[in-house]
Amino acid sequence: MGSLNPKSRASPFLSIGLVLVGAFLIIGYVYSGSGGSNGDKAALSRLEGGGVSCSAEINQALPYLKKVYGDSMHKVLHVGPDSCAVVSKLLKEEDTEAWGLEPYDLDDSDANCKSLIRKGIVRVADIKFPLPYRSKSFSLVIVSDALDYLSPRYLNKTLPELARVSSDGFVVLSGYPGQRRVKVAEMSKFGRPAKLRSSSWWIRFFVQTRLEENEVATKKFEMAASKKGYQSSCQIFHLKSLS
């Protein structure tokens, strides 16, 4: 009986060891499949809340947007959640001025975000109403995630506003239908769950609101992305500003 005791004592440790090995293998798979530093953040953003953040996707799309818009990237407005993070990234780019518009109150912003708000670089405003900027204040406007939370009633007002405050066009990043579940925290901030619409729905809506797609910019972006094998996790639409 004494010879059986070591085996019986070892079995729990063996089970724990197998669990730990499995956990390390899963973590290793996630990190290896993400492709490094920026990819790590993208992979984690996909896991959290069961979906993808289009605001985080801007970091991946930025090199291709620069190739498409060139000098038009010198004065950029970002509209959407996590605007402080997007603006901080844009400000690191050479010859780029950036501003941000958060669509809801920032209750738990960090020191960097509070500094950007204090300086007036990032503002908080309800995008269901006219934007607090003059016409053609920015060369390019990039909006991510925020439009997914608006009903068509408010989109009718917000989309023309985005076209009004831009001079060289605006870019819309939107989630794919069925792509993610909405977290309770997001619902409390926006007041409603995200409505993720198909590309055909968006195109019809652009026509209804008399907004014109920028086909040249769309083709340039697709060509630049395909050369590097980049495939966005979000739908990306390139639209013209109001003339």
Automatic annotation (TrEMBL):
Q: Which InterPro entries match?
A: CGR2/3 (IPR044689), SAM-dependent_MTases_sf (IPR029063)
Keywords annotated in UniProt: Membrane, Transmembrane, Transmembrane helix
**A Gene Ontology molecular function term of the record:** methyltransferase activity
GO biological process, alphabetically ordered: pectin metabolic process
- What is this protein called in UniProt? S-adenosyl-L-methionine-dependent methyltransferases superfamily protein
Classify the source by domain of life. Eukaryota
The organism named in the record is Helianthus annuus
Residue ranges crossing the lipid bilayer per the database entry: 12-31
